[in-house]
Amino acid sequence: MKSIEATDLTRTFNGLTAVDHITFDVHAGEIFGFLGPNGAGKTTTLRMLTGQLRPTSGWARVMGCDIVEEREDLKPQIGVVFEQQNLYTRFSALDNLKFYTRLYGIPQTRVGQVLERVGLTDRAREQTSKYSNGMRQRLMIARALLHQPRVLFLDEPTRGLDPGVARDIRSLVAELAQEDVTIFLTTHYMEEADRLCSRVAIINKGAIVALAPPSELKAELGEMATLEDVFLEKTGYELYQPTAVAEERG
Amino acid sequence: METTMNAHRGMPFRDKLRVILAITAKDMFEGIRNKNTLTVIVTAVMMVALYRFMPLISATDPARVFLYEVGPATSLADLQYSSEIEVRSSPSLPALQRRIGDGSEPELGLVIPADFDARVEAGETPELQGYIVQWVSRDEAQELVQQAETAIYNETGLAVRIEVGDNRISPAVDNDGTAFTASLGTIFMMCMLGISFIPNLMMEEKSARTLDALMVSPASSWMVVAAKALTGLFYGLLIGIPSLLIYGPVIQHWGVAWLAILAGCTFTVSIGLLLGTILHTRQQLMGWAWAAVIPLMLPPFLVVLDELIPGWLVSLMPWVPTVAMSMLIRASAAAQIPAAVILRNLAIILVGTALVLGFTASRIRHRDR
């Protein structure tokens, strides 16, 4: 079953094409990596798929809901962990989550369950302004899981985190996929994508330039190739070569 | 956004209300923890109190007494030299009554009968009809009467009896006395709420990016705006209650006063929502706040200075919603208010609110979705 289907999805801003006729689908319970350099169109795609931004053309369905026509039906099906931390910092973790239970109309008992899951039970009553970066990120994940979404969108979830916290979050993502939650993951960490994702799409200048399991993509480039090599090759990044520069300078 | 609205038709009203109330409750709770909110509330109430009590603090030491002489009363001629009361004359009884009703401090109006001198010569103790504004307490009124009787005796040697009785003057519907300053203080409070507090409710959601999280939750832009409006009304009433209590003795029609506060809050909240929607930073707000405050705050002041401003501007003034608010508050101190005054001013405020909300809605609709 397909959790996400996107066909010819396009978005322009004042004549500039941010996302250019991309087509892909994501299967239920899959961890799908969406990779690309800065400004390639990752976040724009994520914003369209989560109903925050209307596509200029093309269409997409998430859990069978059209992202434009059935936006309100889509909302309970998805959870989003944003790239930038966006919590009510005057509130405790408990109050933040209780607020969202009221929005979703779900029992407050869910708060304890998600806090337990992200390991914040002991610090739940502390004001989130006093939280570390990693704790806030955990809380954002807890918030996204509160209403038990079928699809979880994660925008750079481990960016700038301690290796330990990043590992915890990756473990949690893997666990969720085992529970049949579909994961749409954007990341700059190729190793993370390689380890977690069953398939990855590489987007460059708004267009998908590669879409396959990481193993297939690496195999195309050679036996010793890494996903980073694939990424750099597909996005046309020219590697800095110190020896060549030195020779040129004489 | 049209699509969102269409989709929302499918969402039960009960659920929409739940979402709106959840955001409102969150904003109220957050507002209590926000120093900026508390500062705005305390400052607004203090300003209202200042407007109310400043005229009393700066009141002239000798009480002001207005005399309307029906016929010449030469025996009172020396009263103008009194140091205990400040005497001024009125050309007619209606002018005297209007002046007393418009006073922003307790003043006494006295009618000197045509046969005053004759009665004095006949050895009688003449009785003078006194007039005092309605909102002055009985004790204050009695004190004022005694002060005037003593001053008249000390200055002219004449014993008079001043009878106020039921001669308590209610301010006119368009009075420019205490009810006018009450209206200015209340409008100032509401404008502060609208220009300073409400935009912050929107801008904080935008700057902290919490609005993004709301937009992927069951909340829509419309629900967020409605919730912020409710929060604004809550805080407006929170400030409005002490404001009306401060001016309590002046108000005769509490229903009209509350209507003015409610309608006024609705208007200033809509202005705040518009500012919060179009502005993104506090710096922008600081600049725009001044641009917004002038057309909101200045007309209620200027409306009483109709002799100093051009005629075309005078004719436009009553159409400004803040002037309409001022008119309702001023009218609430009058003894009787024509229904047309209430309906006209209420309609101006509500139409103004609808126009601002409509513009805010169009801004939201044309955002990048």
3D structure, described in words:
- The complex is a heterodimer of chains A (about 250) and B (about 375).
- Chain A has 10 helices and 10 strands.
- Chain A has about 250 residues and is an alpha/beta fold.
- Chain A has a single domain (about 1-250), classed as Rossmann fold (3-Layer(aba) Sandwich).
- Chain A has a 6-stranded mixed β-sheet, sandwiched between helices.
- In chain A, helix 6 links the parallel strand 7 and strand 8 (about 180-185).
- In chain A, helix 4 packs across helix 5 (about 135-145).
- The longest helix of chain A has 16 residues, at about 165-180.
- Chain A starts with a strand and ends with a helix.
- The mean pLDDT of chain A is about 90.
- Chain B has about 375 residues and is of the alpha/beta class.
- Chain B folds into 2 domains: about 1-35 and about 175-365, no CATH class; about 60-170, abc type-2 transporter like domain (abc type-2 transporter like fold, 3-Layer(aba) Sandwich), CATH 3.40.1710.
- Helix content of chain B is about 65%, strand content about 10%.
- Chain B has helices at about 1-10, 15-30, 35-55, 95-100, 115-120, 140-155, 180-205, 210-215, 220-245, 255-280, 280-300, 310-315, 320-330, 340-365; strands at about 65-70, 85-90, 110, 125-135, 160-165, 170.
- In chain B, helix 13 (about 320-330) packs antiparallel against helix 14.
- The radius of gyration of chain B is 26 Å and the shape is elongated.
- The interface of A and B includes residues 71, 73, 84, 91 and 104 of A.
